[in-house]
Amino acid sequence: MTTQQTETTLSAQQETTTTIPNKQEPTTSSRDLTSQGITTTDTPILSSGQYSDGTYTGAQINAYYGWVQVKVQITDGIVASIDFLQYPNDRTTSQYINSQAMPLLRQEAIQIQSASVSGVSGATYTSNAFRESLSDALLQAKS
Q1: How far apart are CA 73 and CA 75, in angstroms?
Q2: DSSP designation for 142
Q3: Three-state SS across 43-85?
Q4: Which residues of 72-92 are buried (b: 16+ CB within 10 A; e: fewer)?
Q5: Which of 16, 22, 67, 82 is the most buried (most CB within 10 A)?
Q6: What is the DSSP string of 74-120?
C-alpha cells in the first residue's frame, strides 16, 4: 500500500508546498511463517504512529506581536500537515518575518514528528508560540 500526501498552504506573501514521501507499508506473507505452522495471507502491518488520527487545534498563544494558533492533521498515526490558524500579520515586518519562519517551523515539525523544533532566528516569539500551540495539539492527539 503506497500513500502520498501533498500540502499547499498560502501564507502572507508566499506559497509553500510540503510533500510527504511515499510510504511503503511492510507486509507479512504466508511463506514467512509456514515453518512455524502459521498460515497467513499478505496483510499490511499497521503503522505504529504515536498519535490518534484526526484534526487537533492547539491553544492560542501570545507571541507579543499577535497570537499564534495551529491546527494539526494526524493521518496513520503521524503528523501529516500543520496549518497556522493565527499568526502575527498586521505589520509589514511581522508579515515578512512570518512568511520566512512559518514554512521552516512547519517543515521541521512534520519531519521530526514533534513540537521540539529549533527556533527561527529573528522570529523568536513566533517560534516559541508555535512550539506551545503545537505541543498542546499533539498532547490532545496522544489522549
Answers
A1: 6
A2: H
A3: EECCCCCCCCCEEEECCCEECCCCEEEEEEEEECCEEEEEEEE
A4: bbbbebbbbbbbbeebbbeee
A5: 82
A6: EETTEEEEEEEEE---SSHHHHHHHHHHHHHHHHHHHHHTSS-PPPP
For residue 85, give the C-alpha cell: 490558524
Tell me the C-alpha distance between 73 and 13, whole Å. Answer: 23
* Cell numbers linked to 95: 508579515
Dump pLDDT digits (tens) for 25-74.
444 333 444 444 443 333 333 345 899 999 999 999 999 999 999 999 99
Q: Which CATH architecture has domain 49-142?
A: Alpha-Beta Complex (3.90)
> pTM for the complete prediction?
0.67
**CA torsion angle for 14, 86, 18, 107 (degrees, to 10)?**
110
- Residue whose C-alpha is closest to residue 45's, from 23, 32, 27: 27
Using an 8 Å Cβ cutoff, are 84 and 99 in contact? Answer: no
**What's the CA gap between 92 and 42, in Å, rounded?**
56
The H or E element spanning position 129 is: helix 124-142
Give the start-to-end residue ranges of the domains of the chain: 49-142
Pairwise CA distance, residues 77 & 142, whole Å: 10
